[in-house]
Amino acid sequence: MTFDIMPHFSLVTVTVIRFVLVTSVALHILLTKRNTSSAIGWIGVCILMPVLGTVLYLMFGINRVRRLAKKLVSGQFSRRFEDPHSSSWNRELDGQFAPLAIMVGKLTSRPLVGGNRIVPLHDGDGAYPSMLEAIENAEQSILLCSYIFRNDHIGGVFIEKLIAAQKRGVQVRVLVDGIGSGYFLSAVYRRLSRAGVPCARFMHSMLPWRMPFINLRNHRKILVVDGRIGFMGGLNIADENLVSRKPPNPVSDTHFRLEGPIVKQLAEAMAWDWHFVTQEMLEGDIYFKEHTCSGDSVARIVTAGPDTDLEKIEYTMLQAVTLARRQVRVMTPYFLPGSRVMSELALAALRGVQVDVVIPLHSNHPPLDWACAANISPLLDAGVRVWRVKPPFNHSKLMVVDRAWSFVGSSNLDIRSLRLNFEINMETYDVGMAEMLDDFICHHRNRRLTHHDLDKRNKLVQIRDAAARLFMPYL
Questions:
Q1: How many angstroms separate the CA atoms of 16 and 465, rounded?
Q2: Is the domain of 256 the same as that of 321?
């Protein structure tokens, strides 16, 4: 009798547990997920695999980062900075891009600031000497954030300079990504920490209950020295960026040296990240200085991430393309945007705007190239011109509209960068800068991608590419 009842009891218990798990998760998804496709996908996974699906959703489906960010925004950190709109360097614009400037100001709560000097630096060969010189001459503070910071030759030089600065009394803070700079072992973190340099790993933990953050990465590249000189862009710290030395897998890139009031916005973005990870608030003039005029550029920092800054970089791009009258140039190492960006670029081309998208012939992540090939056809149909850059692999992230407005920084034009990564870009309303970057992008238009190139792929390759496209949000 006992053996007859137990299977029946177990079946009823399992059924109840399955029902409770699926119902609970489904209700949470319905109340919290804005993206319909994501919501349907998670509910489907939980129906098919109630236990495993629930575990996966608890690990990867809940945006705990936004909860933490909102807590910081409503707490002491949000009151640490003075009113950002009180600076004498704030600027307003007239003309074609005035609606964009107004929109981004409301979106970011940061003002446009004038009096800046912005210098493009190409590859590690052009950027590293200037960055190392700034670190070597630092007197009060160094704030450094990098997605990839390798313990190779050039990484070792940076490490030694940072340790030397710490020893002479400079306040040094280094933030590296918990994935990009080594998940299981981060030699940079170990060397700096052992030398007494405050160093933190963004969203890193080996504990299972911290695994929800494994898919979220800090992709920002920031260096601020003494609150006076800033560097930002797409450049990581690794030997592969020293293109002139002909490393095995060279990576070309574009970085920017900043002076002027914009540096304070850059430092505040780094301070937010540091507090986000360590709970330490960076305060005082050694980090955030008032600036005198350094140049003529008008600029603003735009941050984005799966916290309170969600989609702000994407919205800025969309508004800029909407205002385009003549040209839109985009240079990106990975091109896998969502439907909104695809539609806006296509519509711009259809209304007569010359739209050029410049991507590498081959990136350093083949699955991204496969997915791109399966995703790009609608743009070609609309008249968007897609160009391939010959090697070395170019990692620059640049956007120029009508040779007057520029948008540069760390964000790639893919769903991961626009939705999952913590990114930092800078918009500039500087015709001279825009013309320089526009010429740089046009110089790299080597070979135009056509429908014939896509059609000549054999069926197996097309199937592979189509399958890779399904993983676009996570590539």
A1: 41
A2: no
Query: Which residue has tokens 């005035």?
Result: 98
For the segment 343-384, what is each residue's pLDDT rounded down to a tens digit?
999 999 999 999 999 999 999 999 999 999 999 999 999 999
Distance CA 451, CA 435 (A): 30
431 and 354 fall within a common domain: yes
pLDDT by residue (tens digit) across 40-70? Answer: 888 888 888 888 888 888 777 776 555 555 5
Indicate whether 219 and 134 sit together in one domain.
Answer: yes
Q: Are residues 151 and 7 in the same domain?
A: no
**Which CATH number covers residue 195?**
3.30.870.10
DSSP letter for 243, please: G
CA distance 382 to 399: 19
**Higher per-residue confidence, 39 vs 244:** 244
Number of helices (H), then strands (E), in the chain: 17, 20
Q: Which amino acid is at 463?
A: I
- Cα radius of gyration (the chain): 24
- DSSP code per residue over 52-89: HHHHHIIIIIS-HHHHHHHHHHHSSGGGSSPPTT--TT
Residue-number span of the structural domain to which 18 is assigned: 2-62
Strand, coil or helix: 474:
helix
**Structural tokens at position 278:** 């360590």
* Residue 324 phi, psi dihedral angles, 5° rounding: -65, 140
Q: Is the dihedral of CA 406, 412, 417, 421 positive or negative?
A: negative
Q: 288 — phi, psi (to 5°)?
A: -130, 100
Q: Which residues of 226-235 are buried (b: 16+ CB within 10 A; e: fewer)?
A: bbbbbbbbbb
Q: Are residues 254 and 329 in the same domain?
A: no
Amino acid at 424: I
Residue 243 in this model has a pLDDT that exceeds 50: yes
150 lies in the same domain as 41? no
The structure tokens listed for 166 are: 């710490």
- Average pLDDT across the chain, whole number: 89
Q: What angle do CA 229, 220, 319 make, to 5 degrees?
A: 95
Instruction: Tell me the C-alpha distance between 271 and 281, whole Å.
Output: 7
The pTM is what?
A: 0.87
